[in-house]
Amino acid sequence: MLKILDRYIIRKFLTTFFFMMGVIMLLAMVFDLAERLQEFIDNEAPMSAIITDYYLNFLVYYGNTFSSLIVFISVIWFTAKMAQETEIIPMLNSGRPFIRILRPYMIGATVLTMMSFALNHFVIPRSNKVRLDFEERYYRDRLAIENYQAEFPGNEFVHFSVFIDEAKQINDLEIQKFNEDGEQIRFFRARSAKGFPGTNRWQLTDYYIRIVTPPTEVINEIGEKELKFVNDTIVEGHFKDTIFNFRIDEMAQRENIAEAMTYTELTNFIEKEKKKGNPMVPTFEIELHQRTSYPFATYVLTLIGVSVSSRKKRGGIGINIAIGLVFVFVYIFAMKVTTVAAIKVGFPPVAAVWIPNVMFGIIAYFLYRVAPK
Fold it and tell me: Are residues 134 and 148 in the same domain?
């Protein structure tokens, strides 16, 4: 059951957090609007779409992304203020252990962690889909892909030279199909191929197909076995509608495509991209694991914030905030280093997103041990 002290601290915690969140997100929205306004005007983006499709989802996405760091700053702010106003000392002098004072902080952190976890896994992927569709239509530069190559299920190796976004068309398409023994059984080439989004339908221009006929064993006139070679089948034409095992959506993708996928969709997507040998797989896996690791960072940063700011300092609140900002920058730096290591040098993505939490968890425990009791 919550006591007066618990309700007092939780109320301060949550009100400070949402106030800070509102101020920071409002500033972020203003700066973003100043940067993109000309693009919106040039592309004739309707005001209703700018507000509901873009900025509403913008606030949800970036607010949740930086929520753990905003929690950290909020905890330092109101706890340091309580310490300066000599509210922490009576709590300690009353005989309560420091861990008892810490309890309402952890309750508040749990509320925010559960909110962030639910947003990450259930709300934000759908919200991002609306936001990214808006950006694709009114803001983003034309998608350009060159020298694409990948392996698709069925031992099909696909390559093309250029993707043209406006026409959903690729140039110089080549497909090589191999059997289980690694022998080529089919070769396909087309000067251009137009894909229909959401389907496996394609429209080909100036195509060439060679079907390899494997040699067969026959008995010759003297009773010996020999290989009989048959000419390959060649098919050529100018125009053709056909169906492939892959879609244009699977080949023309932006790096942030994973942001608009739910947990199940992203998991299945990663498995497919692994089979294709997509070098972006570590980036997708980082996105998957961050959806869980970021919310739990709230606990770690809350503990650090309380431990650092619960002592009254001569420099006032400013000193506590300065110390907090140092921790924020170090945390972001550690996250960036491990993320780059996962993408560039093969560091396990799951370790990359959890190591900063573990490192700062150790720091949090040390600061808790030396905090005023």
Answer: no
- The residues near 55 (Cβ < 8 Å, ≥ 6 apart) are 29, 33
Instruction: List all residues 6 or more positions away from 132 whose beta carbon is below 8 Å from its beta carbon.
Output: 254, 256, 259, 260
Q: Does one domain contain both 28 and 77?
A: yes
Strands (E) located in 225-325: 225-228, 233-243
CA distance 146 to 173: 12
127 in the same domain as 159: no
From first CA to last CA, the distance across the chain in angstroms is 24
Tokens 């506590």 locate to 320
Cα 72 from Cα 303, distance rounded (Å):
9
Could you list the pLDDT tens digit for every one of the 373 residues in the chain? 678 888 989 999 999 999 999 999 999 999 999 988 888 888 888 999 999 999 999 999 999 988 988 998 899 888 888 887 777 777 777 777 778 888 999 999 999 999 999 999 889 999 998 998 898 888 776 667 778 887 777 778 888 888 877 677 888 989 888 887 777 888 889 999 988 887 889 999 998 888 877 666 656 656 566 555 556 778 888 898 888 888 887 777 777 788 888 888 888 888 888 877 777 888 889 989 989 888 999 999 999 888 888 776 665 666 777 777 787 788 878 888 888 888 777 788 888 899 988 998 898 888 888 876 6
Q: What's the whole-model pTM score?
A: 0.78
Alpha carbon distance 115, 99 (integer Å)? 24
C-alpha–C-alpha distance, residues 7 and 107, integer Å: 10
Q: What's the total number of domains in the chain?
A: 2
**Helices and strands, number each (H, E), in the chain:** 12, 8
CB 153, CB 245: distance < 8 Å: yes
Kindly state whether residues 286 and 242 are assigned to the same domain.
no
Buried/exposed code over 4-20 (b: 16+ C-beta within 10 A; e: otherwise):
eebeebbebbeebbeeb
